[in-house]
Write a structure and sequence with these properties.
Layout lengths: L53 E3 L12 E5 L5 H9 L3 E7 L2 E3 L13 E4 L5 E4 L4 H18 L3 E5 L14 H17 L3 E5 L5 H4 L5 E5 L11 H5 L4 E5 L8 H7 L2 E4 L9 E2 L6
Organism: Streptomyces fulvorobeus
Keywords: Signal
InterPro entries: Aldolase_TIM, GH, GH114_TIM-barrel
């Protein structure tokens, strides 16, 4: 996670190329990998590359922004707000934190102290011990069920790269893969599309399990090409920058097929889009 702020891990995503040496006798043809959380064919919304979007997680929801996709806070917005956006023919993504505890959420008291780790850089938030799926799976299932009940089309699960951060737990890449696939499966079971938030290093393994990606600051850190597997699979990459002007990244991200915005760290209603022809 770079995670809605400049303080988190600056680990660059460096693709690792594996060279496999095979025997002279050819084996059976490789079979395409089936996602662990594969939904029923054609049953979910699947946004395509380059679609415009609005991302608002704070302040009074502004439904006047001319964008076909809205990504909004799942706790702070209800079925009425989702229905209003649907009447305008917009798809709506439910933002949830799935990898960090937030003391200000109504279900905060249901998380035992044993799964709460170090602070993640935001006041009132702490990393979760994602190895403890016995505790976290029912809690996250309830959150995702809430999104479905309110009528959302998809989920944006945040804090999905705890293993790269000082969480207070000895988390591994395998722990993260298992947990992220669990979240994708839960979303699909509730009939919702799901996006992979940041976690660039694991995109090659996780792309088949997710329906789109959400990324922060890939242009600032020179990481945008790591998102190519999503675009090549016909899936949207919803991308936001905080510190760069659109003129500094739009040409590149348009070439790569990303849906780019400039936002402020508070993620209010304000946004700056790429100029016509560069979006």
């Amino acid at each position: 996670m770079r995670g809605r702020g400049p303080w988190a891990s600056l680990s660059a995503a460096v693709p690792i190329l594996l060279v496999v040496v095979t025997a002279c006798t050819p084996g059976p043809p490789a079979q395409p990998r089936t996602p662990a959380s594969a939904p029923a064919s054609g049953s979910l919304w699947r946004p395509g590359p380059g679609i415009d979007w609005q991302w608002q997680l704070s302040g009074r929801l502004d439904t006047s922004v001319d964008a076909p996709v809205y990504d909004i806070d799942g706790f702070e917005n209800g079925a009425a707000q989702v229905a209003e956006l649907h009447r305008e023919d917009r798809k709506v993504i439910c933002y949830l934190s799935t990898g960090a505890w937030e003391e200000f959420r109504p279900d905060a008291g249901k998380f035992p102290a044993s799964v709460l780790g170090e602070g993640n850089g935001w006041e009132g938030e702490r990393w979760l011990d994602i190895r403890r799926t016995d505790v976290l799976e029912p809690l996250m299932d309830a959150r995702i069920a809430m999104c479905a009940k309110k009528g959302f089309d998809a989920v944006e699960p945040d804090n999905m790269d705890a293993y790269l951060n000082p969480s207070g737990f000895p988390l591994t890449a395998d722990d993260q893969l298992r947990y992220n696939r669990l979240i994708a499966r839960l979303a699909h079971e509730h009939g919702l599309a799901v996006g992979l938030k940041n976690d660039l290093d694991q995109i090659p393994e996780l792309e088949p399990d997710f329906d789109f990606a959400v990324n922060e600051q890939c242009a600032q850190y020179g990481e945008c090409e790591a998102l190519t597997p999503f675009v090549e699979a016909g899936k949207a990459v919803f991308h936001a920058e905080y510190e760069l002007e659109p003129a500094g990244y739009c040409a590149q991200t348009r070439r790569l097929g990303l849906s780019s915005l400039r936002k402020e760290y508070a993620l209010g209603a304000w946004r700056a889009t790429c100029p016509a022809g560069d979006r």
